[in-house]
Amino acid sequence: MNKKIKKYVLDTSAILSGKPIDLGEAEIVTTSRVSDELSPGGRDYQNFQYLREKGLVVLSPDKDAVDEVQKISNTTGDKNRLSKTDIEVLALALELKKHKNFEIIILTDDYSIQNVANTLNLKFEAINQVGITKRFKWGCRCRGCGKKFKDSIKICPICGTETRNIVSNKKVINNRSDKE
Ligand SMILES: [Zn+2]
């Protein structure tokens, strides 16, 4: 009965991938610096909002964890390749891993993050490795009458109410075997 709670820590690349990340039961977290990098209104921000609706939690790591990651990245030679955001992502993963009941996995395509994660005994997965099984398209829906539109329409032409962005179309991607 001691099942660990799986938590994925997303870096910026995971959010900017624009992929609907379907991690099943796992919880998803990221750092406040990642969300700060996204400008409101843009497509990336929409992806971020979508993930927020799916339960993405934004946290800030402790200074101790940040210091430890900086120290390690110095020894691996990754320090100059890591942004402050990257370091926060690693630090957050490191901090969360201290909870015995959590299984922590960093979701990133960044080789330097992967490298430092490996050195810190943190698990990571590349974005294409995880259960991304659906592509999606944005559309919008009227807040009033509920009519859906494929295009981005601000005001519903039927009832004149403002619309909101929604995921309008999900397409299941066939699982190809990736043998080369
Ligand atoms: Zn309407």
Task: Give an overview of the whole structure.
Helix 4 (63-76) packs across helix 5 (84-97). The longest helix is centred in the middle third of the chain and has 14 residues, at 63-76. Strand 6 and strand 7 (148-149) form a beta hairpin. The model is unreliable at 131-135 and 173-180 (pLDDT under 50). With 180 residues, the chain is an alpha/beta fold. It has two domains: 5-129, Rossmann fold, CATH 3.40.50.1010; 134-172, Rubrerythrin, domain 2. The radius of gyration is 19 Å and the shape is elongated. The protein is built from six helices and eight strands; from the N terminus they run E-H-E-H-H-E-H-H-E-H-E-E-E-E. The protein binds zinc ion.
CATH topology of the largest domain: Rossmann fold
The overall number of domains is: 2
Low-confidence parts lasting 5 or more residues at pLDDT below 50?
131-135, 173-180
Overall, the morphology is: elongated
Order of helices and strands: EHEHHEHHEHEEEE
Number of helices: 6
Helical percentage: 25-40%
CATH level 4 superfamily of the largest domain:
5'-nuclease
Distance between the termini: 40 Å
Total DSSP E strands? 8
The biggest sheet, with number of strands, parallel, antiparallel or mixed sense and barrel status, is: 5 strands, parallel
Mean pLDDT figure: 82
Strand order of the largest sheet: 3-2-1-4-5
Spatial extent as radius of gyration = 19 Å
Strand content: 15-25%
CATH architecture of the largest domain: 3-Layer(aba) Sandwich
Bound molecules: zinc ion
CATH level 1 name of the largest domain: Alpha Beta
User: By helix and strand content, what is the structural category?
Assistant: alpha/beta
